């Protein structure tokens, strides 16, 4: 491994034993009705390389990864198998070798149907909360022993569909779980119900109480969100998949609940813009580490929204790209459009920033590609697509640097 030889070289010069290679992990659905993949991508000196593309290690439809020390928790939506995602999903505790070339399963647990997102919470972050899209639910797990996670509590929600609702809003679809800055509350956007569900969590027992629900406009379909703590207060932002909007609220803390006061609602692409909501599907929302920028990804644009770029896998030939949309967060919690930048291909279901905010990874489902973009941490602008790799046979839906990895 270059990772090892680099580290050895560094040791020879008497410097700290951190390798300059970093590891990225990605989850992918399969192009066909077969098991999906969890992949390791090595990033060294501006180059990306797939060093492991492991099929079936997280079942049929891996959708999300959570890094816990040497472990990787992976959710399986199981939507291409029977019984399908509405009734049962799975949580895998996987162990990665240090060089990332192999994953092994420590434990597989059944989960609520169609799990799609996790967040760590509680004392010493020993809790793992899970959003279940297919089953319209919320669950907490105890991961004190990372090899043997155990379920703590589970809830499934019922909603009354609004007249005129599309099929996707016929039932509850919890799409994301987000821990608030105090660690006492988890917010969970419910795309089916046009709601943000707020849970008060017990940091010791990892149990919870559903405290309040915050409504979003009819047929908006809230998908992913984030809390931001500024000097002027705490704010919550959500991107809506069905109406392609960003909504911002000021958060007011009560003893056992949160209240949200809406401060703005804006189209994802900027003031006075409009996309065809039948086709275009906003997906991810990420806040920069300095809390100064809010970025969203937009999927499956019509031709007017697509950007022509050189193919980042080969640097030869032109391809079409969906956008990432970059907003500057103002002191009062409102947002101002700053930049629209190519995601590196079509269907950026997920993207992530590294810890210092200098790199952005995008998971491009339709193109089977993971792309890496440079970001100027001072200006907040995305500046250059550095490179990209193909996940052979896969439809990547999540990609993130595992930054505690040391190869030495
Ligand atoms: C969580 O589990 C505890 C212990 O079994 C139980 O007392 C509590 O009612 C559960 N809460 C929910 C929201 O299911
Ligand atoms: C939006 O897209 C749908 C599906 O292609 C199409 O039927 C509809 O006419 C489009 N609407 C507008 C306003 O272009
Ligand atoms: C950031 O990008 C926007 C959009 O391209 C551009 O107008 C602006 O000048 C850039 N800011 C800096 C500081 O480069």
Report the C-alpha radius of gyration, rounded: 20 Å
Distance between the termini: 11 Å
At the fold tier of CATH, the topology name is: Methylamine Dehydrogenase, Chain H
Output mean pLDDT: 93
Fraction of residues in helices?
under 10%
- With strands numbered from the N-terminus, the spatial order across the biggest sheet is 3-2-1-30
**What overall geometry do the principal axes of the alpha carbons give?**
globular
Number of strands: 30
Strand content: over 45%
How would you sum up the major sheet? 4 strands, antiparallel
CATH architecture: 7 Propeller
Top-tier CATH class? Mainly Beta
- Tell me the structural class: mainly beta
Q: Uncertain runs with pLDDT below 50, 5 residues or more?
A: 1-19
Q: Number of folding domains?
A: 1
The name of the CATH superfamily reads: YVTN repeat-like/Quinoprotein amine dehydrogenase
Question: Layout of helices and strands, plus pairs?
Answer:
Blueprint: H1 2-12, E1 22-30, E2 37-44, E3 47-55, E4 62-68, E5 71-76, E6 89-96, E7 103-111, E8 115-121, E9 127-132, E10 137-142, E11 150-156, E12 178-179, E13 185-190, E14 195-201, E15 208-215, E16 222-230, E17 233-240, E18 245-253, E19 258-267, E20 281-287, E21 293-299, E22 307-310, E23 318-321, E24 323-329, E25 335-342, E26 348-353, E27 359-364, E28 369-375, E29 382-390, E30 394-402
Antiparallel strand pairs: 1-2, 1-30, 2-3, 4-5, 5-6, 6-7, 8-9, 9-10, 10-11, 12-13, 13-14, 14-15, 16-17, 17-18, 18-19, 20-21, 21-24, 22-23, 24-25, 26-27, 27-28, 28-29
Keywords: Signal
GO molecular function: 6-phosphogluconolactonase activity
Family: Belongs to the cycloisomerase 2 family.
């Amino acid at each position: 491994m270059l990772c090892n030889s680099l580290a050895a070289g560094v040791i020879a010069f008497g410097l700290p034993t951190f390798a300059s290679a970093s590891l990225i992990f990605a989850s992918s659905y399969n192009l066909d009705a077969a098991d999906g993949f969890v992949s390791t991508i090595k990033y060294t000196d501006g180059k990306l390389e797939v060093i492991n593309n492991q099929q079936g290690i997280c079942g049929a439809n891996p959708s999300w990864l959570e890094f816990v020390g040497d472990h990787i928790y992976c959710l399986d939506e199981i939507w291409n198998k029977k019984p399908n995602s509405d009734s049962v999903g799975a949580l895998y505790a996987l162990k990665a070798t240090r060089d990332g070339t192999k994953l092994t399963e420590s434990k597989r647990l059944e989960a609520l149907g169609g799990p799609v997102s996790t967040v760590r919470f509680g004392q010493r972050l020993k809790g793992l909360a899970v959003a279940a899209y297919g089953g319209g639910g919320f669950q907490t797990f105890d991961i004190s022993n990372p090899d043997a996670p155990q379920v703590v509590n589970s809830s499934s929600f019922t909603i009354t569909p609004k007249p005129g609702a599309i099929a996707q809003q016929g039932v509850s679809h919890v799409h994301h779980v987000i821990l608030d800055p105090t660690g006492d509350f988890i917010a969970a956007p419910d795309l089916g119900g046009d709601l943000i569900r707020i849970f008060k969590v017990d940091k010791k027992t990892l149990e919870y109480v559903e405290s309040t629900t915050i409504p979003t406009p009819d047929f908006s379909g809230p998908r992913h969100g984030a809390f931001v703590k500024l000097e002027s207060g705490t704010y919550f932002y959500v991107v809506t998949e069905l109406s392609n909007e960003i909504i911002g609220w000021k958060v007011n803390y009560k003893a056992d609940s949160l209240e949200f006061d809406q401060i703005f609602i804006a189209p994802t692409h900027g003031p006075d813009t409009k996309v065809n909501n039948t086709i275009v599907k906003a997906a991810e929302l990420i806040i920069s580490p300095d809390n100064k920028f809010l970025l969203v990804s937009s999927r499956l644009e019509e031709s007017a929204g697509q950007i022509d770029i050189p193919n980042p896998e080969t640097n030869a030939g032109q391809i079409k790209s969906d956008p990432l949309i970059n907003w500057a967060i103002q002191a009062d919690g409102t947002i101002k459009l700053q930049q629209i930048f190519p995601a590196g291909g079509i269907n950026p279901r997920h993207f992530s920033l590294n810890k210092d905010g200098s790199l952005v990874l995008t998971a491009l489902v339709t193109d089977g590609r993971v792309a890496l973009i440079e970001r100027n941490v001072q200006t907040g602008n995305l500046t250059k697509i550095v490179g990209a790799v193909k996940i052979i046979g896969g439809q990547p839906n999540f990609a993130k640097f595992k930054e505690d990895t040391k190869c030495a």
